[in-house]
Design a protein that fits this description.
The structure is a single chain. With 295 residues, this protein is mainly alpha-helical. Helix content is 73%, strand content 0%. The longest helix is centred in the first third of the chain and has 22 residues.
Length: 295
């Protein structure tokens, strides 16, 4: 199973490390410095997923996002930095931004950065604005190496839609996002411990059957996500509860999924300890709203 980069407490140090390494020279010299910093940033962020302190990471991320903005301006062709920023925009909005309007802005920017990291403008235009009948041909051009950018496009886009369900144009985006997510599953279903399957399940579960939702397929997607991570990426249970269980009005499944998260022992998936800590916080919040949701 493939590991993927995440968020680290070491990000708190990144602005100072980066400023020390980037020389006050010409454009080419600065670009070389950014290029040299890229593996350091990736390794730091990869190590971050092991953190057991979500508050520390959350405090560090805003400064780190500003740093990445500066690095992207310095070397606009560095798609690894752009991809990293897309991921961290999603993580920050999902785990630490409580105001919907503000979170929406982070998701929108994270989605746009994901498209920039993908570097396939013809696919972007076809997916976001082209005729729906042309989507399959456009998505067929994507390759396995594109999955690392696609997962953050899909994640940011899905969360942005969730915050704009009162907007019919945003809801219409689901018809474009679902095929993209299906293609992502085809390319690499294991990336980030089954995140593509989680996204596919959430999208299928979030729509009523009358609008194209499919609870049976959603359940199959979540089951596969849980299989990929051996039930150890607890975000799968959280998303299954907040989407499928709510849509099918299954209070028992809602409670059992979230209790599984809360009862899971720390360290089951050391590489994703931070994500599992965040999942526990989300599970507690959802269980506290049980009566509002189901009664």
């Amino acid at each position: 199973m493939k590991r993927r980069r995440g968020i680290a407490p070491g990000l708190r140090l990144l602005p100072f490390v980066a400023l020390a390494l980037i020389p006050a020279g010409g454009c080419s010299t600065s670009k070389l410095a950014v290029s040299a910093m890229t593996p350091v940033l990736q390794n730091t962020v990869d190590a971050a997923l092991r953190s057991d302190d979500p508050r520390l990471v959350g405090d560090a991320l805003p400064t780190s996002l500003l740093l990445l903005d500066g690095m992207m301006e310095t070397d606009r062709g560095n798609r690894e930095i752009v991809r990293l920023s897309s991921m961290l925009h999603f993580a920050y909005a999902f785990a630490w931004v409580e105001e919907p309007e503000r979170a929406s802005r982070y998701y929108a920017r994270g989605r746009d950065l994901g498209w920039r990291a993908l570097g396939r403008p013809e696919v972007q235009v076809a997916v976001t604005a082209g005729p729906l009948k042309e989507l399959p041909a456009a998505l067929a051009k994507l390759k396995q190496d594109d999955a690392e950018s696609l997962v953050w496009i899909a994640a940011n886009w899905a969360q942005w839609i969730e915050l704009h369900l009162e907007d019919t144009s945003a809801v219409a985006d689901i018809s474009r996002l679902m095929p993209l997510t299906d293609r992502l599953v085809e390319l690499d279903e294991t990336i980030f411990w089954g995140m593509p399957r989680i996204l596919a399940g959430a999208l299928q579960a979030s729509r009523p059957i009358t609008l194209g939702g499919n609870p049976d397929r959603a359940r199959a997607e979540f089951d596969r996500a849980l299989e990929i991570s051996d039930r150890n990426l607890l975000l799968a249970q959280v998303f299954e509860a907040k989407t499928l269980a709510v849509q099918t009005f299954d209070g028992e499944s809602f409670q059992s999924s979230l209790r599984e998260v809360l009862e899971a022992a720390p360290g089951q998936l050391p590489e994703a300890e931070l994500l599992n800590r965040i999942a526990r916080i989300k599970a507690e919040e959802l269980l506290a709203r049980y009566e509002d949701i189901f009664e």
